[in-house]
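fyi for ur records
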Amino acid sequence: MSEKIRFTNNFEDLSTDTGFQFEFKCEKCGSGYRSSFDGSAIGKAAGLLDAASGIFGGVFDKASDVSDRVKSAKWEQQHDEAFTKAAKEIEPSFVQCPRCNNWVCRERCWNEDKGLCKGCAPDLGVEMAAAQASKSVEEVWAHAAMAEEDKKLGAENWRAGVVASCPKCEKPLEKNAKFCPECGAKIHSDNICSGCGAKMDEDAKFCPECGQKA
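which gave:
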C-alpha cells in the first residue's frame, strides 16, 4: 500500500501514458514546482501492444484488451508510487501554515520569523511600504483635484460656483476665468446684496441668502 500523502488539493496531475509527473502549487501566490518526469515501463508496453493491434489486425485482435488489463492491473499502483515520490521531492519547497492550513511556498509566501504564512502574518516592512505608496497616491489625486488657479479661490469665491461656460456667448471655459476669452464678458457678477453682502445673479430680484430686495 502506498504511503499517505500530506498534499491534498494543491497539485495537478500531468501524467501521460508514458510516465508520471505532478505540479504542486502554492495556495497563496499560485506559483509552483513540477516534479521530475518518471517514465513508465507499463505505459510503454501497453503502447506497443496497441500499435501491434493496429498493424496486425486479426492476429492481435485482443491486444488492445490486453493493454487495458495491463494498465488497470499495475497503472494505479505505479501512479500512487510515482505520486509519493513526487511529493517527497517537492515537499521541502512548501510548508503548511498552522493557522489557515494552506500549503504555501517557502520562497515567497512564508514568514520565517512568525512561523506563519504571509497571508496570516504579512511582512511589516512590505505592508508599510505599500501603505505609504497608497497614501502618496491619495495625496497626488487630492493635489490634482483642482487646477492651480482654482486652489487660490477662497470660500467666498466658491459661493458663486465655478462656471463652465460664458453666460453671454456660451463659449466653454477651460479654467475658472473672470472674463470670457472669446467675447470679453464678465463671468461673475458683482451684484452684492445691500443687506447681507452676499453675491447675487445679475437678474436676481431678491437676495437668495436673506431675501433682501435687490
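The first strand starts at residue 11 and ends at 13. thats all i got for now
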